[in-house]
Structure formats: structure tokens, C-alpha cells
Amino acid sequence: MLDYPAFPAFAAALVALFLKTSLTSLLQVVSRFRSRMFTVPEDAALLGIPPRAEESAFVRRCANVWRNDVENLPLFLALALAYVLCGAPLGAAQGLFGMYVFLRYAHTAVYLFGLQPWRMVTYLLGMLVCWIIAVRVALLVAI
Q1: How far is CA 39 from CA 33, 65, 66, 110, 113, in A?
Q2: Any idea which architecture 7-142 has in CATH?
Q3: Cα separation, 24 vs 62, whole angstroms
Q4: Mean residue pLDDT across the chain
Q5: 68 near 102, Cβ under 8 Å?
């Protein structure tokens, strides 16, 4: 870790994002049981109810948050790891990674509550953080 001073910031961001996605998944499961609306027959059979054609709106929102995370978190994590491996300074990495994690948590909250334009704003700011990291990686590689 001495060769990679920003690694603790990366590890902290990774754990924080894992926690966020795990909580989103748990919220989806709990919401599915509370609504008693299951589209998969064997899941509905657990409660002895017939399967439904569609799930509750909130369960669909949770699924959309999950899908958005699956699409976006790997890109951030790859960029963040590249930044760390290029010798990123700890302070810069903490700031950028912390901001991204904060924005992803905020994005999840505003997505679940259907708050536009805040969902778009948090998403675009998260992408801006990724672009800043990408540019810094490119500059470090070019040196």
C-alpha cells in the first residue's frame, strides 16, 4: 500500500458502494414481500399466492436503481483503480471518490422517490467526477 497512497480511499469507496447496492437489494426484497406481488411463480408459491403479471411500482424502482448501478459502478471502479495504480495522491482520491459515493447515494434516494430533475443532476455530476478521474489518469499516463 505504500506504493499506492490512494488505495485506502479506493477501498473505502468500494465498500461504501457495495453497502449501497446491498441495501438497495434488501429494500427490493422487503418491498416485494410487503406488496405480496411476485412475478416469478416459485417466489409467489413461497407465500401461497398466485404470481402477478407485474411487480409493485416501488419494487420496479428498486430494480431500476440496481440496473443503473450495474451499468455505472464498474466504470467508476475501473477508473478509480487506474487512478490509484497511476499513483494518485490520497487527498485528491479521497475527494473525488467521496464525492462519487455521495452522489450515488443521493442518486439512489432521488430515484426511489421519483425526484426529477435531481435524479438527472446527481447522475450527471457523478459522470463529471468520472470524467475528472479519466482526465487525471490520462495526464498521469502521459507523463
Answers
A1: 12, 19, 18, 26, 23
A2: Up-down Bundle (1.20)
A3: 6
A4: 95
A5: no
